Each structure stands twice: as structure tokens, then as C-alpha cells.
Amino acid sequence: MINSRFQPDEWKITETRFEPENGRDSESLFAMGNGMMGLRANFEEKYSGDTLQGTYVAGVYYPDKTVVGWWKNGYPDYFAKVPNAPSWTGIEVTVDGESLDLAVCKVKSFRRILNMKEGVLTRTFTAVMTSGRTVEVTACRFLSMSEPETAALSYSVKITGGEGLLVMKPCLSADVHNEDANYGEKFWENESAESDGPRAVVTAQTRKTAFVVATAMENVFYADGKQVKVMAVHEANRDFASSTFEHRYHSGEVFEVRKYVAVLSSLNHPAEGISKNAMKRASEAALKGFDAMLESHKNAWNEKWERGDIIIKGDIEAQQGIRFNIFQLNQTYTGEDPRLNIGPKGFTGEKYGGSTYWDTEAFVFPFYLSTSDTHVARNLLLYRYKQLGRAIENAGKLGFKGGAALYPMVTMNGEECHNEWEITFEEIHRNGAIAFAIYNYIRHTGDKNYLTEYGLEVLVAISRFWAQRCNWSEEKKKYVILGVTGPNEYENNVNNNWYTNTLATWTLKYTSDSLEWLRSTSPVKFNSVVTRTHLDPDNELKHWKEIIQNMYLPVHRDRGIFLQQDGYMDKENLTVGDLDPAERPLNQHWSWDRILRSVFIKQADVLQGIYLFEEEFDEETIRRNFEFYEPRCVHESSLSPSIHSILASRLHDTDSAYKLYLRTARLDLDDYNREVKDGLHVTSMAGTWLSIVEGFGGMRIRNDRVCFNPVIPPAWESYSFMVRFRNNPMRVEVNGKKVTVINLSEDNIPVAVYGKETVLGPGAKENFEK
Ligand code: BGC
User: Fold this and answer.
1) In the predicted model, is pLDDT for residue 230 greater than 80?
2) What is the pLDDT, as a whole number, of residue 409?
């Protein structure tokens, strides 16, 4: 195990030292969000040391002009990025004319605590100014989970060692930039600032996309715990607004500013009047007050934990790790708005531009499906449904016709943003993950209406893509899919990637079966789907059937395994054990050319497919494939070990499952990959959740029943998790001796534990033994 910077604690992440060398890491790790907005843990006071300033507003993006070495037809013109937005945390502090700046003064003590139960970040420190004055600060902030366009922070200062002048200047600033801007451009324009009594606002508009964001504050000031009316000087210059409070301080007196913030964007409000509106909202927050706001915020978090907590006994590091992951997932996405999605880094950094990847459907979707109300997962599906037109356009640009859809590899508004041909044009398996999520949603929720109202339109369009993307091989007398990149990005332009071919065939079959089901159960609805999709039911379904029956799926007969792609066995047959540990990770030590020719797999590929369609394979087939591919996989995508861990649990190999789980459990907390400074791996955090619930817990949905097949890692005394089936919540508790399932709903829940089928009535609690 890596030495953690953080003390083990069930609910808290605590940093006990000021370590400027880890400054950016901590800014990512202590980032906060509420689905609507988020920010890195930048200090309130001035900081002249190394920092990545980051404030983000969900759904607001800037189309950053693409940079490529050699342009290829079909490349997108831009990469959509969630820009660093106007920052609202700033409180400049000067003591006797000297700026409080932790990079300059002597830091005597420093402590930062993220309370994950309550969603509150607290920082305390003692600093000695060059004048010799000692300054003690306590700063506390939260982004309201109950009123997601508002936030509050409290900042208190105590100076000892004499009397003098303290100046506190809460501010808002639109003078921000993105480090990852392709051409060093600023993403904002038309900045303006105004103040009105105790309130101020800064408004800015994204260039090109014209999203308007108004960030307002109202400040309330306290001296020794009592609210005081102080004369404040308000300043509002184009991209900066502040209120300046000056006080004569005496040794030991405590001064506090409470800053109430509202961030409104034109995504949700008319741009006209948005500044005034934001100021009004900041005032309303101030009127409600810090404690009342905090109370409703905590209650909202409490509800989230009641729905989706995982409790691990006997391993406090594991407990802290999984709660950190669940916390981050809930901070990133709350599922109330189908225009929003989950970027791989959430609101914790600029990498990946905050855009949507296949990560959503392949890894994150099951988390929200099992821990939130049905509408949350449905909104994630609707996000893609709303972008269907664009996906059809994307496919059209590549030469596909007749309503075929290729969803983008990376997107914000439905347009493709990625610009490497081997991914943009070839990593087409993402289309299959989107189709699978529809199936997964329906088997979990039973909401078949989704299929008729929305899902079939998406499925038909994706099926049309597959039907055109494959071709008949006279040589093989089979349909083949040529020139693709599977999930394993360490091979490009391969033929017949087993995962892609399997997913394509499955999508065609699921779409055909769903259409036939609808035709027989509701001809009216079937006709409506036909009309909406311009489907030619006889000819198109006939063609799909022909493909389903004749798709080429590469196998290696002697080894009894599925072949990752046609040429895989031509490679030099090495395993990870043959690698010099000093050369890992390969992507930092080997040339790309060497990686591409090697046998080493970046992330689950064949095994990703076996994970999705596990019930179609017997245990021995799963074992042979696992035993072949796991030793060849370097897991250089954080998304990978969790899938392998789930399969190891399925194979009753709890030791391997646990080892693989450990590679994801505290990935960011302990910064395994030395890159947490760029932001957290939010989407792969869902993988850790999966490796507990679907891996150790063995949760599956089979034949309209929720099934569990739990194992327990030897290091744990017990664990329990909360999940929903058909929107009915239940708790599953596992210890070395028995499994207890508690139905927390008012409905019957059909379950099977270790193969024993039963129906749990409302409130029922039943024990199962292996
Ligand atoms: C992985 C992709 C993933 C992306 C964003 C890459 O390293 O190979 O599968 O979509 O990261 O998480």
C-alpha cells in the first residue's frame, strides 16, 4: 500500500500540513460541487504560490478551436470545454498593509478537513506575518446541495500580538483563464461588474457560445460573534467587484465575513436581467443565513448517503476510499437536468474539458441507476436521446446514410469534439455502450415505456450504423468490422475487435427483438416508432437478421478464448510479468509505435464484453478468457481494474478480485498515478463502486429479479450497500457467515441470494447462507 497523506477516518479527509509541493493535488482532492457548479479548493486569500484556479458551471462550455498536426476530413472544428468561470471564493486580507499570503508568510499550523457526510470543507491555519503578527484563520465553505445555484462561505480572522489595521476584501473576479486553452485565448468576454449596497455581481459571457454567467455575492460582517454594520467601500470595475471592510483590531478579537453567493447561468435563466437576479438570489441566501442554509444542505447530503452509502467494517482505509468516491460522484451529477452529464474529471480540473465520454454509459450509469430515483438514470439516457439528431449528422459527415447515428467519442452538445482519427472514427464501440445503457435501464427499472417513447429511436439509429459499418467478407463468408479501435487504445485500426463485433451484433438483436415485441404488443406504438424513424420494418430487420446470424467473432480455438482482434496472436507473446517494472507505465516509457505493436492491453477489452454479457458464457469460458487477458493487461486506464475485479469475483477468486479492487479503491486519495493535480478520476470512481456491488456483492438483474452472490474480502469484517430495484430501495449486509437483505420499500421485491429465489415483502428482512 502507498503511504497515504491522509489520516484514516470513516467520514473525513484531513490534511494536517501545509505542503505547497502538493498544492495542486489538494486543490483537486478538496474540490467541491453540487451538480450545478463546482470548484477546486483554491484558497480564499491571495496565494502567490503554484495553483490551478478552477471554478466551473455545469453545461456552460466554450468551443476551443481544434489543434491537429495533419487535418483529416471528418475532424471536428472544436473541442468543447467547460471554461474556468468567474471565481467567487476570493477574500483578500491585509494586516497592517501586508497581504496575507501563505506562500510568503510563515505557516505555523495548517489543517484542511473535508467532511463528506455533510459536504463541508473547513480550513484552519496560523500564519506569522513578516511584521511578527500572528493570524489565525478558519474558513468554511459549502456549495448548497438543496439550492444548487447558491453557496456560502465563512472566513474568520483573529490577530494576536498588538493592534493595527485589518482589511478584508471579499471579491468576485472574471479575470480568469484556462490553462488548457489551445491558443491561449480567453474564453470570456463582455465582462461587467456592479455593486448595489452590500451586494455585488460580476457578469461575463462565453465567447462564441454566448452563455452568460452572473456571479453575485452579499457579505455580512461580524466582530467577536456580533453582526456589525461597517462602512464598506464597494468597487466594481469591468471584471472585478469587491467590498472592502477596514477595522482597527485589538489582539485576540475575531472578525468574520460570511459571503453568500449565487451563480446563475443563461442555461437556466433569461440573460436579460440575470445580474440583478443573481444579486437578489445572493441577498435571499444572506437573509436565510449561514446556519439555516447549512442545515438544509446537510439534510440533502444525508438523503444521498441514506440512498447510496457503502459501509465497510474492519478496514477503515477502504471505508474512507469508497465514501470519497461516492461523495465525488454525488458532487458531480445530481440527475435533475437531461442537458447535463459527467465529465471524467467532474468539476475538479480542466483535463478532458468537462465533456462527456463513453465512461458515462459504460461505468457511471449503473451507479446512478442503483442509488438514485429512476428519473436520474432516465435523464442520462435522455441526454443522448436529445443529441440523436447530432449523432445522425456525425454519421452523415463520415458517409453513413438513412438515419444511421454515430454518437461522438467526446461531446458537450452532441457534436464530436475528439480529433484523433484512430479514436474519432474508429473507437465506435461507444455507440454500443449507449444502446446497452437503454437495456440496462429497462431491466433495472421495468420502465418499458422508455423504449417506445425514446429508446427505440436511438436503438434503430445505432443499429443502422452497425449495419452499414460492417461489410460482407467473401473470404470469410461472414460479416466483418474493419479498421476499429476497441476499448484497448494500445492498438488502432484493427480488424474484428471481438468486443466491438459482439456489441454490434447484440445491438442489432436487441433492437430487432424490441421492435418485434412492440409490433406484437402494441401495433399503434409500433407504427409510431416506424413513422418517427422512417423504418422499413421488413427490409431493414431482414438485413439485420442476416448480419446477426453471420457476424464474424474471432476466437482462438486451441486456447478456447475470444480473440481481441484478428491479428492479436501474431504479436510477441509476452505477459506483464515479463516487463521491467522500471518501464511502467508503458505510456510514459515506450514509444507509441512500440506500444501499438505490443501484446499489452491498456484496459479491459474482451473482458469488458464478457462483463456486459456474462450470462451468455459458462464459467469455464469466463475463466479461460480471464486467465489469458488479465496477465496481458497493464491497466493504464483507471477504468480497467474494476471490470477485471468484478470478473475475478464472479470466478470466486476473491484474492485477485481484492488486489484489483485495491488498484482503484483509493486511486486519487493516494494518487497512485501521480496525476491527481490535474483533477480526480470521477468516472472511474464508479468502477470502484461496481467492483464492490457487482463484484464482491455479485449483484445482477436476471429475469426480473435482483440477484446477489456475495463474497467478502478476508481483510473485511463485513460490508453493506444500498441499492434500488424497480426504484425500491433495499440494503444488503454481508459478513463472513451470512447475507441479510432488507427491503426498505413498500413493495414486494423479488430477489435471489446464492441462487435461492424468494420475494421480500415490504419491510422484510431475510438472512441467507451459502
Ligand atoms: C480511456 C478511455 C476513457 C478516457 C476518459 C482514456 O484513458 O482509455 O476509455 O474514455 O480515458 O476517461
Assistant:
1) no
2) 98
Question: How many C-alpha atoms does 320 have within 13 Å on its Cβ side?
Answer: 20
Instruction: Return the sign of the alpha-carbon dihedral for residues 644, 436, 506, 516.
Output: positive
Name the residue type at position 729: P
Closest residue by Cα to atom 3, ligand 1, is 359
Q: Length of the chain in residues, anyone?
A: 770
Amino acid at 279: M
Do 603 and 578 touch, CB atoms closer than 8 A?
Answer: no
Ligand 1 touching residue 359 (CB < 6 A): yes
b/e 116-128 (16+ beta carbons within 10 angstroms → b): bbbbbbbbebbbe
Residue located nearest, by CA, to atom 5 of ligand 1: 344
Residue nearest to atom 12 of ligand 1 (CA): 344
Q: What is the pLDDT of residue 191?
A: 96
Distance 703 CA to ligand 1 centre (A): 32
Ligand 1 contact via 636 beta carbon (within 6 Å): no
Q: pLDDT above 90 covers what percent of the chain?
A: 96
Q: Computed from CA positions of residues 394, 552, 625, 716, in that sequence, does the dihedral angle turn out positive or negative? A: positive
User: What's the rounded mean pLDDT across residues 295-320?
Assistant: 97
CA of 603 to the centre of ligand 1 (A): 9
Does 358 sit in the ligand 1 pocket, CB within 6 Å? Answer: yes
For ligand 1, atom 8, the nearest C-alpha belongs to 637
**How many A from CA of 637 to the centre of ligand 1?**
6
* Gyration radius of the chain over CA positions: 27
Does pLDDT of 1 surpass 70? Answer: no
pLDDT of residue 2: 59
Q: Which three cell numbers stand for residue 233?
A: 467601500
d(C-alpha 1, C-alpha 318), whole Å? 12
Residue of minimum CA distance from atom 9 in ligand 1: 487
Complete edge-to-edge strand list for the sheet that includes strand 705-708: 700-702, 705-708, 749-753, 756-760
Q: What is the pLDDT of residues 482-511, one digit of tens each?
A: 999 999 999 999 999 999 999 999 999 999
Q: What is the pLDDT of residue 673?
A: 86
- The C-alpha atoms of residue 192 and residue 205 are separated, in whole angstroms, by 9
Helix (H) or strand (E) holding 652: none
pTM of the model: 0.97
Residue with cell 482597527: 248
Per the structure block, which three cell numbers stand in for 84? 474556468
| ω into 585 cis (within 30 of 0) | yes
Q: Supply 500's cell numbers.
A: 466491438
Which of 275, 273, 262, 265 lies closest to 217, judged by CA?
Answer: 262
* Average pLDDT of the chain, as a whole number: 97
Distance from C-alpha of 365 to C-alpha of 359, rounded to nearest angstrom: 8
The label of the residue with cell 455502450 reads 433
Atom of ligand 1 nearest to the CA of 489: 8
Question: For 596, phi and psi rounded to 5 degrees?
Answer: -65, -35
Q: Is 489 a catalytic residue?
A: yes
Q: Answer yes or no: is the C-beta of 344 below 6 A from any ligand 1 atom.
A: yes
Nearest residue to 114 via CA among 6, 13, 4, 29: 13
Ordered strands of the 55-57 beta sheet: 32-33, 37-39, 55-57
Question: Residue 743: which pLDDT band, with cuts at 50, 70 and 90?
Answer: very high
Query: CA 483, CA 625: separation in Å to the nearest integer?
Result: 23
Closest CA to 416 of 56, 63, 59: 63
Structure confidence by residue, pLDDT tens digits, 682-728: 999 999 999 999 999 999 999 999 999 999 999 999 999 999 999 99
> Which of the residues 489, 630, 694, 733 is marked catalytic?
489
Range with the poorest average pLDDT among 2-6, 353-357, 538-542 = 2-6
Read off the C-alpha cell for 442.
429497462
